[in-house]
Amino acid sequence: MTVCGLLRLDGEPVEPAVLHAMRAASTVPPPDQQWTFMDGPFGAVAAAEPALGTSPPVAVGDSGLVVVLDGRLGDAGRAGARPGEGPAHEAARAAALYRRDGAGCFDRLGGDWVSAVWDRSSSRLVCARATLAMRQLLTWCDGRTFVFGTELRHLLGAGVPTRLNQAFLAELLCRTVTTFHETPLADVERLPAGELLVAATGSRRPVRQGFDTLRSVEAAARPIDLDAAAAGLRPRLEQAVAATLDGDVTGVLVSGGVDSSTVTALACHLGATGRSPGRLLPVALAFPGSAHDESSWLDALDEQLGIRTLRVLPGSYDWERWRAETALTWALPPSPTAALLCDVLGLLAGQGVRAALTGEGGDDWFRGWRWHWPDLLLSGRLAALWRESGDGPRTPRHAVRRLAQVGREGVVPIVRRSSPARPPDWLDRRWVARIGLPDRFAAAAAADRSAFASHDRRGRWRLPALRQVAPICEAAQQRHMSLRIDWRHPLRDRQVVEYVLGLHGSVLFAATESKPLLRRAVHDVLPPVIGQRQGKARFDAVFHDAMVTLGGIEAIARHAMVKEGWVDLEAARRCYGHALGRHRAGLAPTGQQDAVVSFWPLFAVAAWLDEVPLS
Length: 615
Known about the structure:
By secondary structure, this protein is α+β, with helices and mostly antiparallel strands.
């Protein structure tokens, strides 16, 4: 358990029994010290996450201001924090900033946190979530009571009704989530990252509003030299990694890809230059004999850095274990790759590791693409656009190819609107229409088009992808918290992301390699073979094995999803068989319809529906 509580909007006093039930419902291992607070219509319970310390993450002021902060501030370790300062100190720092700047303080508080601030003088509660947070905060309101918690179990402990949100489950089945706030339960909402929610006695509903200014960061009008951009990025990367290192031992999840290898190499570099405490424990999954085994890359990293990465052999997907966890937590079963990650983190926790670093964020912010080409065209910078379309022989054929590419990537996004997502063929079209899924897809596509003024910003933020992965990452964060591990992501650091967003799009793009800026910034610490690596390992086989173990598509043949008309079983059989055939023939998928991983939501949602007692 970390943070939960409620506010009686009708002004009635909080019932202690409700807070006790919310606290007892937590699935996170309870620490020795817990904090319970009641102040008329407001009540809260808090305890530090097992990996972050022992003191409750709370600051209570003489004026009646109460600040609860679950997580870590982004500038911890950079602005006066000292070893041994735990959750209570972080909350006190947040409280000081809130007293000075009010809700305006949240935007500059980097890191991964959620917060609840109770102001007795105004009978007002403010809940907020960091701009790049993976920690979740769930809420529910019926007009009389506002309930919040970092676990769904907290809300269930308060007696929140458990009605099904069919439209959201349909979007999970489509792998196309249209909102940041919905959950599988109707009226239970996730507070989106970068937003705050204000509830006050005497009001009927809380008001949600954004405080994040990161999305408004404009890229520079002109590009700078790649070496200059890399020189500006490097100290920010080092600061971000340094801020995430534990004082004793820090685990790092490494694959041999550019992102995780960057984090590992920088952590080793900081240690070698005396700028980081503790020691590093790199750990990786090994798949001997498989196409997705990355041992050769790991060997190169070990040799370059003088380390020895702990190699872990994967086990099979444990359906019994994850069904039991679903019944306990009400979270969907993790994907096969997420389950493997839990196994690795469990191993680290068994060795006393409290923090584990990842390369998450590299694909989000450093990927780069031709998203800025339409903006170059609209601004009349045709010479710059032509230069970026490629070099090569000055022949008519090559010129035609370049013109075709400029048309696809520069002209088409201007003259043709992106189409709304389509449901997969195995969802019953009558059900899809009945729950309004096409309208939801169309509304999301229209909102995404109008969310940003430039094509470049729209492409960099990739809101559809962020909406899809957000609930997955939040569920993973919660599982890892239960393992007593704090999951940390230096490449999602606020200062790093803000710097990269401010660079012209051409600095992030190269026709010959991905992530040129990140590679250049760390070229001196990465092995050349990883610095030049192209492509990523695919883990379709892990999904294939997990689904086949359960019995394949026939495992859902008699499921309620089929009986109630959600899933067209014959279409699902046909598409699933086609996808498996391509996979077993060693052929890459041509789209979502024939990708093995696209069928995973069918199995995950089926298991969830089997295990949770809905009202």
